[in-house]
Design goal:
- With about 270 residues, the protein is an all-alpha fold.
- Helices cover about 75% and strands about 0% of the residues.
- It has helices spanning about 1-30, 35-40, 50-60, 60-95, 95-110, 120-125, 135-140, 145-155, 160-170, 175-185, 185-200, 205-210, 220-225, 235-265.
- Helix 4 (about 60-95) packs across helix 11 (about 185-200), helix 8 (about 145-155) packs antiparallel against helix 11 (about 185-200) and helix 13 (about 220-225) runs antiparallel to helix 14 (about 235-265).
- The chain is globular, with a radius of gyration of 23 Å.
């Protein structure tokens, strides 16, 4: 009975792994084939990779578009981590009735879909003359409500005794946060950084609304434009663009995966 259970378990894991990996393999294989071969369902590697690369780089300024996405995501991650973690630390360690009311409203606002805020956001950015500027995407993304919730849940495990001891030593609240709390919760910040980066990197709605010229495009807008650029879709070029767009998130996760796992479990480095 134990052998049968073990066989079923590993069979299930193998099938699940194959289902998870297959789209990634198909994407890489598709980048080496023509559009017709991909449409016909060819799953093996071809010899059209450099042709697809030439078509993509010849039609679009890929280095500039990649820089746009990296700049937006990088600035968003840095600012959102600082602002949301400071807010969460204040909510958790300096609790009042008013702060709990405000925090409750934040949890309520998390239920509001982004699409319902597009019109007021556009009017606001138009009034600030930020339409077709990357700041129009960065500013709404800085105050990530989920990250406030995430950081506060992790700050619950931070010992108040350490904060009290730091105050006795004469440290201010900001010194306690940046010199004591932050170094001890790097895993939490790593997990939040990955979430914030992927959320910004994969953002589509806000760039679609605010960015109007090709030199301001992000990778998500590029991939979208490739799918609607002509009556006959060039799937090979699209696959190449998707691979390029996937590389930064893969690199980030590979370098920070240990911190991500620890951070998601509320790890505290003592």
């Amino acid at each position: 009975m134990k052998k049968l259970t073990s066989v079923l378990k590993y069979t299930f894991l193998i099938i699940s792994s194959f289902i998870s990996i297959f789209p990634f393999y198909w994407m890489i294989a598709g980048a080496t084939n023509t559009a017709n071969q991909i449409a016909e369902g060819k799953l093996t590697f071809g010899d059209q990779l450099f042709v697809n690369l030439q078509d993509l780089f010849g039609a679009y300024d890929i280095p500039l578009i990649m820089w746009n996405s990296l700049k937006i995501s990088g600035v968003t991650v840095i600012l959102s981590l600082i602002i949301t973690s400071l807010a969460a630390f204040g909510f958790e360690k300096f609790t009042t009735k008013t702060s709990e009311l405000i925090y409750g409203l934040i949890l309520l606002f998390m239920m509001i879909p982004l699409a319902s805020l597009v019109i007021p956001l556009f009017k606001m950015m138009a009034g600030l003359q930020l339409v077709n500027q990357h700041l129009a995407i960065i500013l709404p993304a800085i105050n990530n409500l989920f990250l406030i919730f995430f950081f506060r849940q992790n700050f619950k495990s931070f010992p108040n005794e350490i904060i009290d001891a730091s105050k006795i030593e004469g440290a201010s609240n900001y010194e306690i946060f940046f010199r004591v709390v932050f170094p001890m919760m790097k895993s939490t910040y790593a997990a939040a950084a990955i979430y914030a980066f992927m959320n910004s990197w994969n953002s589509y709605l806000l760039p679609l609304i605010f960015l109007q010229t090709e030199n301001k495009y992000t990778m998500t807008l590029l991939i979208s434009s490739l799918s609607s650029a002509s009556y006959v879709a060039n799937y090979g070029t699209q696959m190449v663009a998707i691979i390029i767009a996937t590389i930064p998130t893969l690199i980030l996760f590979l370098f920070m995966q240990k911190g991500f796992v620890k951070g998601m479990t509320g790890s505290l480095k003592m």
